[in-house]
Amino acid sequence: MTMVYRKLSRRQKKEVIELFYTGSFLLKELAQKYRVSESSISLLITAHLKSRKFTTKEEND
Hints:
Layout: H1 10-22, H2 27-34, H3 38-60
Helix pairs in contact: 1-3, 2-3
């Protein structure tokens, strides 16, 4: 089966992050649901976590 990969919209990115935090989907399931690669999902989540880390670090200073 060939998957057609595409970019996620802002709304979809927000949904992916929310679903990740609730723990209701595995990485593979999120990739299938939004028809993107697993690496795209992991990069999105990693970028989100890094941005939150820097935000909280700045607030503490």
